[in-house]
Recover the amino acids of this structure.
């Protein structure tokens, strides 16, 4: 998108398209995209009757939580925006300053791990599942405020063992990947 | 130890020896060992002027926190009871019911992961370190109330990469092991 400022009308029209294509875009991302302040984005949302990201995510997540069998809604770190049991799942987590190391302002690894592990668990079609093994790699440090998108895929099921791959990205850049073997008991 | 009940005097003498050998034994473990109620153990501790486990651990941990360079005291999950930078470290975590899955009463994996990862980080002699890779295995489910002991060993240092093995046990049974590669930045 060009850095020329669009008129309010132009912007709000584009706004609707962008939100339709990527319903989980943050106000920060919109502000960068349209080269306007976050305050302007908020006023646009208000004018267009588009709820804040948190609400949009919650609304979509609601139906998915009902499908989850292994763990309780509150135990999933992030919001579950897509779920097909034994196949795949997607969750979103907006990181904040409560999650970072004091010294580096980098999000603590175990929050990212917990997001991945709880999504891996949520996609399993079993009453009870536990993590057996995990091989994980942190690729890029995550900063407070960045929006994490986790995608899980069930790659294999052998007896009571479920093999799940989870990839976490920030704006299409992979920041973490994990391979989990979960066991239903 | 026999299940015959010792006299109060006998018990309190043995008590002192046991605490000296294993200063981080829990009241529950002592109660099993002496075949008396936890209430009796508490009264024994009071009579012998031995503080509760939490206080004993905190006292020992205090000096160790000062040695840690990479992360802040509050960021270590568990209490650090031994630390030799770039060599080894030991931490203790008393699990409780706030840490469990609702459904199974089993301690959530990411608490155990966080204990291991933060200990791995604490043993590194660097200003700033991040986890790069981790291979982990959960061997036995952990229940609320169980005391976890994590031991970390730095097995190799190559440039800015630190290889750390962490083993977590409950009463000498291994419940988790993890291999971490940390990167100082």
């Amino acid at each position: 998108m060009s850095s020329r400022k669009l008129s309010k009308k132009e912007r709000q029209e584009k706004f609707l398209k962008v939100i339709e294509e990527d319903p989980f875009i943050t106000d920060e991302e919109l502000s960068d995209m349209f080269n306007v302040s976050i305050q302007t984005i908020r006023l646009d949302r208000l004018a267009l009757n588009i709820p804040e990201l948190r609400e949009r995510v919650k609304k979509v997540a609601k139906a998915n939580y009902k499908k989850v069998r292994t763990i309780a809604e509150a135990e999933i770190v992030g919001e579950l925006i897509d779920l097909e049991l034994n196949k795949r799942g997607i969750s979103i987590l907006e990181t904040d300053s409560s999650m970072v190391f004091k010294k580096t302002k980098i999000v603590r690894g175990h929050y990212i791990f917990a997001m991945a592990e709880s999504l891996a668990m949520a996609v399993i079609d079993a009453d009870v599942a536990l993590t057996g093994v995990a091989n994980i790699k942190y690729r890029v440090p995550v900063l407070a405020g960045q929006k994490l998108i986790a995608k899980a895929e069930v790659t294999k099921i052998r007896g009571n063992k479920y093999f799940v791959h989870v990839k976490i990205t920030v704006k299409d850049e992979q920041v973490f990947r994990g391979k989990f073997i979960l066991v239903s008991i």
User: Anything to note?
Assistant: Chain A has two domains: 8-50, 63-184. Residues 78 and 93 of chain A are 4 Å apart (CA to CA).
